[in-house]
Specification:
Outer Surface Protein A, domain 3; NADH Oxidase; 2 domains; seven-stranded antiparallel beta sheet; 14 helices; 15 strands; 32% helix; globular
């Protein structure tokens, strides 16, 4: 009988132990060098006798090891649907994302939730929770105007006008428009009494448990009345806290793979996550998905609000994490970069229509598409 290692295995160190995990079955074992060597040697269908000779191990000992790993799902026999074929069906779509993509999703798939009982709530809240707001107390700041005019567009109009823009006019955005966008997207809408968790803020976008772990950093080049620089948006004050003064659009653009939607925009907003603000309450790995969803919620609100205010929005997750985090001065562990949002007045063509990367659908495009 021939055997091979299961396809979707993940190995990692945890303190002093070495673990192997099957992403499909969720089985996890603390293993030793022999088991690890066995799994490596069975990277393709092989006989036990051949592997025993190669790794200089007694064949009876290896037989026992193989039987154990087979029962746990870490090895597959030739009889199992052609070397584990049953575990491969449907995975073609995941292949371009490699092992990292599989691990990212399947490590949190079916993860158990923390049961919300009075005892659990008491345990979670026995220590002080992370601050609701992040502030740079010693930073110079610009207080933004509090009055925001109603954009005056219907919801339907805004929803259907929203497009991703990559070309902007070389003109500053009005301070009042920028202020309205920041307030309506990232500002406080209200506060709630969350019982053991105290008072928590609400934004115009949903967030798991009202933790609102996301922070906004503005990289400004062309906003009227605001000096170019990198700022942190102080939610409580509705102010900009100066982190670095100067022109930083070019380094941000390089960190975003030279995308014109960042390179031409008069300002960009980088969303980061203060991880402890969310993990303090939700202590299971699936909460990481919630963090990414929360980022998407804010990104959509940003895009719709920018559209309502007459701006063209752009958004990207294609950036060098370390380069962006270094620019903002965050460590990438306790606070991580998640999303880059930009906006500006859209460039227009000779007919006064917004310049878009892709024109309306054509017959040629229809012929190339596969709709069924």
């Amino acid at each position: 009988m021939k055997y091979r290692s299961a396809k979707h295995l993940e190995c990692f160190w945890d303190a002093s132990n070495f673990f192997v995990k099957n992403l499909m079955t969720k089985a996890r074992i603390s293993t030793d060098p022999i088991a690890a060597s066995v799994l490596c040697s069975f990277s393709e269908l092989r006989f036990v006798s051949d592997v025993a000779q190669e790794i200089e191990l007694d064949e009876n000992v290896l037989d026992s090891e193989v039987a154990s790993l087979l029962s746990l799902g870490f090895l597959e026999s030739e009889e199992q649907g052609g070397a584990g074929k049953h575990t491969e069906e449907g995975f073609d779509a995941w292949v371009p994302w490699g092992k990292e993509g599989l691990s990212f999703y399947f490590s949190t798939r079916g993860a158990p939730f923390t049961e919300s009982t009075d005892e659990v709530r008491e345990e979670i809240t026995k220590d002080p929770s992370p601050p609701v707001f992040k502030e740079y107390k010693d930073a110079d700041r610009i207080f933004l105007p509090r009055h925001h005019e109603d954009p005056g567009h219907s919801y339907q109009e805004v929803l259907y006008r929203r497009r991703t823009h990559r070309d902007f006019v070389d003109a500053p955005v009005r301070r009042e428009v920028f202020s309205a966008l920041m307030a309506m997207t990232f500002g406080v809408k209200d506060f709630i009494d969350a019982q053991q968790f105290g008072a928590l803020m609400l934004r115009t976008s949903p967030a798991g448990g009202a933790r609102h772990e996301l922070e906004a950093y503005a990289v400004i080049t062309g906003v009227a009345g605001i000096a170019p620089g990198i700022y942190h948006y102080n939610v409580r004050e509705h102010s900009l806290e100066l982190l670095q003064e100067g022109e930083f659009r070019d380094p941000l653009t390089r960190a975003c793979d030279a995308q014109s939607g960042v390179g031409e925009a008069p300002f960009s907003v980088v969303l980061t996550s203060v991880v402890s603000r969310l993990s303090f309450k939700y202590r299971h790995p699936r909460a990481y998905r919630v963090m990414l969803m929360n980022s998407g919620h804010l990104g959509q609100t940003f895009a719709l609000t920018a559209t309502a205010l007459g701006l063209g929005p752009f958004q990207t997750a294609a950036f060098n994490d370390s380069a962006v985090e270094e620019l903002l001065g965050v460590d990438g562990v306790r606070e991580t970069a998640l999303y880059v949002l930009s906006a500006g007045v859209p460039a227009v063509d000779a007919n006064g229509d917004a310049v878009l990367s892709h024109p309306p659908m054509s017959l040629e495009g229809s012929r190339k598409a596969r709709f069924e």
